[in-house]
Fold each of these.
Amino acid sequence: MKDVYITKIAKFLPNEPVDNDQMEERLGLLNGRPSRAKSIVLRSNQIKTRYYAIDKNGEITHNNAQLTEQAVRNLCNDQFTLNDIQLLSCGTSSPDQLLPSHAAMVHGLLKNGNLEINSASGVCCSGMNALKFGYLAVKSQQVDNAVCTGSERSSSRMGTNIFEEEIATLKQLEANPILAFEKDFLRWMLSDGAGAVLLENQPKGAVSLKIEWMEGYSYAFEMETCMYAGGEKLADGSLKPWSDYPADQWGKQSLFAVKQDVKLLDEFILQKAVDSLKQAYAKHGISPKEIDYYLPHISSNYFKQGFYDEMKNEGVEMPWDKWFLNLEKVGNIGAASIYVMLEELVDSGRLKKGDRILLFVPESARFSYTYAYLTVH
């Protein structure tokens, strides 16, 4: 088995930052009126700016594959070119189409010769799952290097056009139709962007991050669905997929919009997070004392204090001075968030040899959690 190092990190955030006052200009008004949920959600998540693959005129500037392509290109230079990549592993929750896979579409844009590709599906954990595939491939000497990515183009699922038909249908039933909170909620949470890392079997450059281990935990065996798209949640907690609905209902019920069971999220996301964290600590014999930088992907600052308190109550308190977050500046980019966060930490110049970093990514879809423990070389 080979050691595996993150030797380069890059990101691509499309267009200029969009502040809270500009959001509805980009995403569009529903039923011609401002959202009631917007101010509530923004006050809770405390996001100040985010990025959309939409210009000031409302025109789409990039699809997901193009965002990912740009992040990979930003990773490469004269010392490591596109043609040097041996494995491309891509994670996203918002691929541009059902088929072909996201990684295949990115590879098609890169046009960098024959190589192995892997696509990881899911929500936020898909970026970490893509990383783990590359990590295991390099570690087991299947390849000498791998490029892994996380990306999202969530704006394509939040625009007015996604909900127009449902709003029109609701107008037939009531005078002042309002989109259900579980759909409107996520319009003010999500952002677009992509991140990429280069994995190699030896350290290079000024800062290399050795991946000591990665772990993943799923609670789907005991938890019903919380975040979903492409279906509708029924009264018994099960999901009815879009393919079981007549085509004329896809738009009327906004079946392809991203939705979230907010009550379920609030009740269980932190509880299961700390349970999985304690399992990872126990398995690898570490505690918060063996961590210098803690990078948690949190979807909203609403959860920040609660997460801290839950860890403290369970005896695994993480001191605030170890936390590193950038949610306020870049928003919640789903599968790309942890890549963009790590890129900013490395670029900050703070890291020194021997520092230890814990990456933590939760996924509320059906409550999954992934971890990576890194050391600076």
Amino acid sequence: MTNTGIALVTGATAGLGQAVAKALAEYGTHVLVHGRDADRAAAVADRIEKAGGTAEIYLADLASLAQTRELADRVRADHGRLRLLVNNAGIGAGRPPYRRRRLSEDGHELRFAVNYLAPVLLARRLTPALRDGAPARIVNVGSVGQAPVDLDDLRMDAHYTGAQAYYRSKFALAAFTFDLAEELADTGVTVNCLHPATFMNTHMVREAMMPPMSTVGTGAKAVLNLAVGPAGGAATGRYFDGGKEARAHEGTYDPAIRARLRAVTAELLAPFLGDGAGSAVR
């Protein structure tokens, strides 16, 4: 196997993240296995190592921005160069009728915090390690389900549903992908977003009581296309549906919408940036 550098995969203890972590290890990547549960993370790392790969465990709850910052800082302290960040961890719509609203440790709507704010914070704080490891890649695992964010009601105090919260978080993640790709142009770091596969056989899909239509293997193949395949090295600031380039929600391309989202995000993340972090959120 050829060593392809170091990759951090969030949410690597189950489902798509686990499949991606194991596949990356088979490519010779040293995988940083992120999760919340020590036993589950250890089981994934053990399987990788028994198959001839290498892995390390990093525990953090991405519902906490402080823990997210600490995760990024531990990775940077342990590994000066990073070749790949796969922002995979996420929370789905939940169980129908999707009306149970939960807030994160920092008081943000939980899906917005985990599916959007945490990936943004990780990418920002790991930018120096990615630039030092260039050519490097960021792959944001999004969804075909996207809906504009109401910036005047980020906590969704009115008219909450888990499905709408999920769609908004994935809209924001796609918009951030396009912004960060522009910012990192000519640095050797590519940034792309994808909908890996529709209704994979994962806990997220089963919890939503949706019949699975595809496997995690199919989704992992699409992620690997951007993580180590030719597409992720040549393209940046793109959205993919499976293995094919597609269009995200049209609002994610709107400069005014993205500017407002950037400003709000900068305010929310300001306490967790600085102190050697990557470029500031603009």
Amino acid sequence: MALAQTPARERAADGLDETSRRPPRRGRKTAYQGSARGFIAPGVFLVAVLLYLPLLWTTFLSFTEYNGLGDPDWVGFDNYVEMFEDPAFVGSLLNTLLWVAGTLLVPVGVGLGIALLTWNLPGGIWLRLPFLIPYAISGIGVGVIWSFILSAGGALDQALAVFGITDPPRWLVDAPLNTVVMIFAASWQGVGVNALLFTIGLQSIPKEPLEAARVDGATGLRLFGSILWPMLRPLTAVVVGLSIVASLKTFDIVLSMTKGGPGRASETLALTMYRETFVNSDYGLGSAIAVFLSVVTLIASILYLRQQLSQKHEM
């Protein structure tokens, strides 16, 4: 009997030895967490160096008077007071709000319309392609193209002269007309990618609800309002959020088309920040505008996302 039980005892003893040699579960979890932290540490360090440190430095400079030479002089909130007392800053803030409204109405609305019109058409991708090509052009390139079209005596004025219109509007000179035409120039660039995103959203909608709605007689606007729009709402939140952020930091198209002129009538907040910082060498005031623009962008994004999430919970 003792001999028969020996192998079992040996196996049990070996099992106990294995268990004793195996690290405890908590220890393994700690080791895995340590390895994970080691992998993400370079990325966190890179983000901290390239994003958070410049943000902290810019915030510090916004409370100082600094021209790029010597040491910054602490002035408290003087830059923020000066910023809001400057009529040019108030004008650039209003122009930025006009950009937000325009880029929500035109590129998002037109992109949605193009997606709806070409969604089920054979060869619809080829109909959307001409709208998508301008997205590959840089903002400066878009500005140069539309400056050639809209400048005095440019392509548009010559085309209007053919129809007998010899005294056209001064597209890039009169405010707020110059801001409006620049919004249309930016929309020419952004419509295609919005149409592509909305098309992807439409293609992901299940066919069963659409077929059931059509059987019930829902077509056109009724089908769009009852089926398509509610199912596109999550994607619409992304498109609108990206448009808001992009419009708040509009810079390159305005710089290349009007340089903020005439005077400073068509400046946006981003261009005002650039002018004060790199043209006037007032790094303190430029940093204050940058901080204000960052805070406005953050607040707008949070409010919009909270609204979308509350609507989602209500549904």
